Structure formats: C-alpha cells, structure tokens
UniProtKB/TrEMBL annotation:
<dbReference type="InterPro" id="IPR043502">
    <property type="entry name" value="DNA/RNA_pol_sf"/>
</dbReference>
<dbReference type="InterPro" id="IPR043128">
    <property type="entry name" value="Rev_trsase/Diguanyl_cyclase"/>
</dbReference>
<dbReference type="InterPro" id="IPR050951">
    <property type="entry name" value="Retrovirus_Pol_polyprotein"/>
</dbReference>
<protein>
    <recommendedName>
        <fullName>Reverse transcriptase</fullName>
    </recommendedName>
</protein>
Length: 111
C-alpha cells in the first residue's frame, strides 16, 4: 500500500483516512513492513518519487544485458520484460508487434 500526498498537511489527512479504512475493515499492518516519510523508493517494481512513477533502472539494465532471442522461450521472456515497461514506451503496441507476431507464428507451427 502506498499513500502519497502533495504536502505534509494533506499527507496527515490521507494517512488518517487510510488508517480509518483499515481499522473499519479490521485489517492490520506489520510495523516492520511499513515505512513512513519516504521521499522516493522502489514500490512494486517501479520507482516512486516526487515526480511520480518512474522506470526502475534495474529493469532497463536487465533488458540491456539480455542476449538476442533465439527461440520461442527467449521471445516470450523478452515480451514479458517489455510488458513491464509498456507504460514508459511510446507506441509500444506498434514497436512490440513483431515480437507478438513471431510468438503467434511459432505457436501455430507447434500445433
């Protein structure tokens, strides 16, 4: 769970509402898994900062280190990695179409 606000006053209100909602739902948080007052950090594989959601540099590095795909499984792996970055790639559908066509052709030839 992530609670993000524009300023400290709003943040206190947002936290209060969040905690009230958790209390009403009888949900508990583990203190050792909670962090408060963090300006930026990784959350669900993304970098969260004052600017908003940003690309995780580790994911880019993993993609750059990948070898070119040689078989069906490699193309599957590549499309999976690209899917995680889709929101940051303009016209990602057009750019990824050749990979998906390759998967479709390969899958139909397997049957």
């Amino acid at each position: 769970m992530l609670v993000k606000s524009k300023n400290k006053a709003d943040h206190m209100v947002n936290l209060r509402e969040t905690f009230n909602g958790l209390r009403e739902s009888r949900l508990k948080l583990k203190q050792e898994k909670c962090s408060f007052g963090i300006v930026s950090g990784k959350f669900l594989g993304y970098m969260i900062s004052e600017k908003g959601i940003e690309l995780n540099p580790d994911k880019i590095q993993a993609l750059l280190m990948m070898k070119p795909p040689n078989n069906y499984k490699d193309v599957q792996h590549l499309t999976g990695c690209l899917a995680a970055l889709i929101r940051f790639i303009s016209k990602s559908g057009d750019r990824n179409l050749p990979f998906f066509k390759t998967l479709r052709i390969s899958l139909s030839s397997r049957r």
